[in-house]
Amino acid sequence: xxxxxxxxxxxxxxxxxxxxxxxxxxxxxxxxxxxxxxxxxxxxxxxxxxxxxxxxxxxxxxxxxxxxxxxxxxxxxxxxxxxxxxxxxxxxxxxxxxxxxxxxxxxxxxxxxxxxxxxxxxxxxxxxxxxxxxxxxxxxxxxxxxxxxxxxxxxxxxxxxxxxxxxxxxxxxxxxxxxxxxxxxxxxxxxxxxxxxxxxxxxxxxxxxxxxxxxxxxxxxxxxxxxxxxxxxxxxxxxxxxxxxxxxxxxxxxxxxxxxxxxxxxxxxxxxxxxxxxxxxxxxxxxxxxxxxxxxxxxxxxxxxxxxxxxxxxxxxxxxxxxxxxxxxxxxxxxxxxxxxxxxxxxxxxxxxxxxxxxxxxxxxxxxxxxxxxxxxxxxxxxxxxxxxxxxxxxxxxxxxxxxxxxxxxxxxxxxxxxxxxxxxxxxxxxxxxxxxxxxxxxxxxxxxxxxxxxxxxxxxxxxxxxxxxxxxxxxxxxxxxxxxxxxxxxxxxxxxxxxxxxxxxx
Length: 507
Fold this sequence. Notes:
- It is a single chain.
- The protein is an alpha+beta fold.
- Helices cover 26% and strands 36% of the residues.
- The chain has an eight-stranded mixed β-sheet with strand order 7-6-10-4-3-13-16-15, with no helix packed on it.
């Protein structure tokens, strides 16, 4: 199994024509500095199924040597009419780039005069994108249209499935011919469309909404619904509280507008302060906890990827996992320990469904169907453990690594180096921890329970005993790797239940 993963990863890396440096790390050549995209929707949706796009990319050579070849990735459904380099027409070649057994990307390759390191170049691509059938990622209809990043609707040099992270950059976006529909994206809206100055991935949605504004947050409720506007106000308040809370932890904030949008497809998507929620939320009498948590996570994610550039192997452990951990901490602060524990239970339950078939966190990417489940939920468990271990220093260490405007899992692993064995096991290995506990054996005023650690690292865990009177006792017990241990409780009371690793910090 491990050999297969290594071979697959090697092939995957080659697909992106990446350079491996002396340290064995992947080195990219082109980095997007800014996108400038104009998208034109059809006038007649019954006869036209194409989105017409002009995409201008400002690229920088971040490699160590000059380069004259530029490769862009784009949906296979796109028909490119022309490519320009620095305003001049350029020849280009098209080829297929296989992602997995059923998915491919189109690769557009053009050549130019040699571009030195740190030099900028502008690429313009004109194309039509055919939408054969509507999905949650892209759709064209008279009612609403939407194009999210993973529909591959815009060209970019680094694939969305790249193990070290996809392209994030500031962008300008203009959408024409919306036929009177409202257009929503992220960033500041003006007469020419939207401008997002944070690192981001271009997207947009069109439709008809009633806008409910509260304390600077815009909540878009689909028209024609018997909506509960109190829900809109509550969502806006939660988003603002989450923003304030996270800024207090991380020492930074953002001024990009916050938008919460009711959608029929794509709920859960969040980018740059724009968050999609299921439209049915606004017809309920009470806000459900899952939607509230999604909004909180959507706000926290702005820090990890938009405010701060997050890249390198295992980036999802930060973008998804650390965001989920901080969101859960906010839930605990606002709603109490019981609600936070319910979120932890949801995370463990979701992760357990894929825990026997996921790859190590340092190699997974969105190409894997379990990517978001693994990075968000197992990742949150890792950050919870480190937070418990480092206390007040936890966020100070993260802030220090964020000061340069970039963040990587490699940097954070170095910052938390005293937990190296734990992090190596949790990030570089598949999940194979198995902690076992035997029946409690009472002898006099003392009860013991045998423990076994079938994992390959030492653990220091809490064993919780429940007494016959309902009270609990905790025994903090170390167990060596692949060895045995014993939890001891000094009490004459009868113990009716024992639980190893009660906080479930080891998946």
